[in-house]
Amino acid sequence: MGADVPELLPSGGAAADLNPRPVTPARVDGRPRVVVLDYGFGNVRSAVRALERVGADVELTADREAASQAHGLVVPGVGAFAACMEGLRAVRGDQVVDRRLAGGRPVLGICVGMQVMFDAGVEHGVRADGLGEWRGVVEHLDAPVVPHMGWSTVEPAEGSTLFRGVEDERFYFVHSYGAQTFTQGHDEDADPRYTPPRVTWAEHGPDGAAVRFVAAVEDGPLSATQFHPEKSGDAGATLLENWVRSL
Ligand SMILES: NC(=O)CC[C@H](N)C(=O)O
């Protein structure tokens, strides 16, 4: 470099100050740190207890750096789609999820925490934008009896790691809305590097009038379940353990 050209980034301190390296927390007794995002919506206490029981070192917080740097982030969600999105944005959870996924850092969405990963949700005629990680709109389940409240089996995706060992079990659902289509983000024929998401489906309603909806998705670092694994007994615990072990 010519003598008259100032050093833009003097070696050492200044460069380090510009982009402080994320500091992933140390594993405590080998346990991965999982942050349950505390943004005012979700069965957070039961999620914390369920994750601790399957070996995670859990922190319940809305702190952006803690949520960004943990080995895993859980986005719970209970209530209205629009309200959950408002709560998420209020703690910049939308940016945290985007940054984590861009860096391949695992995120698990639960119930409305899964629904908000889609483009939008429509509830009581109100359309609200979601995080847009997946194409599609979460809409009312057009079934004779709604909400879908109870234990249902699912149709696990081929090659699912989330449902390993609990493929034929029942999981606990409480919802009136759901994603009823799933559109691949890419054409895997055009891009051999692309691994299509593993979509698990479920149905609600009587034969002949049942509505089919997305029960879970495994899409690289982003996983999500419409049901509540933290309220799904041993099967839910095994599913959470499968996710925690992947961290
Ligand atoms: N358990 C929930 O809070 C689900 C709420 C969501 N609005 C739904 O009905 O699908």
UniProtKB/TrEMBL annotation:
It comes from the Bacteria. It is found in: Cytoplasm. One of its GO terms (biological process) is L-histidine biosynthetic process. It catalyses: 5-[(5-phospho-1-deoxy-D-ribulos-1-ylimino)methylamino]-1-(5-phospho-beta-D-ribosyl)imidazole-4-carboxamide + L-glutamine = D-erythro-1-(imidazol-4-yl)glycerol 3-phosphate + 5-amino-1-(5-phospho-beta-D-ribosyl)imidazole-4-carboxamide + L-glutamate + H(+); L-glutamine + H2O = L-glutamate + NH4(+). Coiled coil: none annotated. GO terms for cellular component: cytoplasm. Transmembrane segments: none annotated. GO terms for molecular function: glutaminase activity; imidazoleglycerol-phosphate synthase activity; lyase activity. Keywords: Amino-acid biosynthesis, Cytoplasm, Glutamine amidotransferase, Histidine biosynthesis, Hydrolase, Lyase. The active site is at residues 111, 228, 230. SUPFAM superfamilies: Class I glutamine amidotransferase-like. It holds the Pfam family GATase. Its main location: cytoplasm. Its EC number is 4.3.2.10, 3.5.1.2. InterPro entries: Class_I_gatase-like, GATASE, Imidazole-glycPsynth_HisH. PROSITE patterns: GATASE_TYPE_1 (PS51273). Residues 35-244 form the Glutamine amidotransferase domain. IGPS catalyzes the conversion of PRFAR and glutamine to IGP, AICAR and glutamate. The HisH subunit catalyzes the hydrolysis of glutamine to glutamate and ammonia as part of the synthesis of IGP and AICAR. The resulting ammonia molecule is channeled to the active site of HisF. Heterodimer of HisH and HisF. PANTHER family: IMIDAZOLE GLYCEROL PHOSPHATE SYNTHASE SUBUNIT HISH. This is Imidazole glycerol phosphate synthase subunit HisH.
